[in-house]
Amino acid sequence: MKSNEQLQKDVMDSIKWEPQLHAAEIGVTVHDGIVTLTGTVDNYSKKLAAESATKDVAGVRAVVEKIDVKYHNLGIKTDDEIAAEVLKSLRNHWDVPDEKIQVEVDDSWVTLNGDVTWNYQKEAAKRAIENIPGVKGVLNHINIKALRKSELEKRVIENALRRHWSINADDVHVTVDGNKVILTGKVTSMYQKEEAGRIAWKTPGVLFVENNLVVDYKYEYVL
């Protein structure tokens, strides 16, 4: 039996393992596999690192992230300064079609809009600005408009899932509706759920991925 207290300890240990994080910065509460993160950090990358470290822990079913980003006085920048650095960073990344992306900055929060051809371009745009000092958060509203409009092949996606070392493809069910992929079934970790979603997004022609996989950990949760 894995208790809420044990899962809380596992998550806290995982956060401690991250070099850039201090355990005292992050509060962790757990209820039936749902982990809530609270606290204040001094840059956005720490916030992402805490969330990632939590998702890597076996038994975590969902993450509620309530971490605030508060920069020291020297790290505070105006929205205009942040916007200029965001645009420069997007231009410097070869996998980002920066001419197709619009940037808005409001109170140090960056919103990305526009249309790209591939999901990896959307993800690359977000990664390109996550470590810019002064950024408190990123809202990625970029749309995917694939060039290929042909019917997706279910078999191609299923084979890609089978090739991944961490995923039991027999427990993942793939449904294709035009250019939309729907994933259902069960996995044993948040990591596996997100990896299955990323694999689906890599399929040529995909416009939408509906990831309905349920994280079903083998331990029971007790109070």
What structural keywords apply?
223 residues, alpha/beta, four-stranded mixed β-sheet, 6 helices, 32% helix, flat
Give a quick precis of the structure:
With 223 residues, this protein is α/β, with parallel strands linked by helices. The chain is built from 6 helices and 13 strands. It is flat, with a radius of gyration of 19 Å.
Topology:
Layout: E1 2-3, H1 4-17, E2 26-31, E3 34-41, H2 44-55, E4 62-69, H3 79-91, E5 101-106, E6 109-116, H4 119-129, E7 137-140, E8 143-144, H5 154-163, E9 172-177, E10 180-187, H6 190-201, E11 208-211, E12 214-215, E13 221-222
Parallel strand pairs: 1-13, 3-4, 6-7, 6-8, 10-11, 10-12
Antiparallel strand pairs: 2-3, 5-6, 9-10
Helix pairs in contact: 1-2
Report on the architecture of this protein.
With 223 residues, this protein is an alpha/beta fold. Helices cover 32% and strands 30% of the residues. It has six helices and 13 strands. It has helices at residues 4-17, 44-55, 79-91, 119-129, 154-163, 190-201, and strands at residues 2-3, 26-31, 34-41, 62-69, 101-106, 109-116, 137-140, 143-144, 172-177, 180-187, 208-211, 214-215, 221-222. The strands form four sheets. Strands 5, 6, 7 and 8 form a four-stranded mixed beta sheet that branches. Strands 9, 10, 11 and 12 form a four-stranded mixed beta sheet that branches. Helix 2 (44-55) links the parallel strand 3 and strand 4. Helix 1 crosses helix 2. The model has no long low-confidence stretch (mean pLDDT 91).
